[in-house]
Here is the input.
Amino acid sequence: MIFTNSDGGARGNPGLGGIGVIVRDNEKILTKYSAKIGKYVTNNVAEYEALIKALELASKFTKDELTCVLDSELVVKQLLGEYKVRNPSLMPLFLKVQKLQENFKKIKYVHVSREDKFQVLVDELLNEELDRK
Here is the structure.
């Protein structure tokens, strides 16, 4: 089974934003990605942008089942329909995720703590990116 771990953050919230993503086959990391995403973004926007990149990257490895692992409870609960998307700046990102889901037969979203070993890794990727001049 293919998994993604993604993390987005903004220094200052809003502030300089970045994302970190890994795609893995259980324990084996298939690809890593990190990038700056803007100078004035919120943490929640960055979390969605990270998930969008994770879905794009994962589609190169599978079209079947995918599990997306995030430490953003808000994003996971919005995608599961437990929370409404009330912030107008998040709605286009939410809809983009909905569209990207069509690339997979089955998709699951899982919320984990920031201490999860793969979440620690994507957080490091994100912070290395934000530290880069």
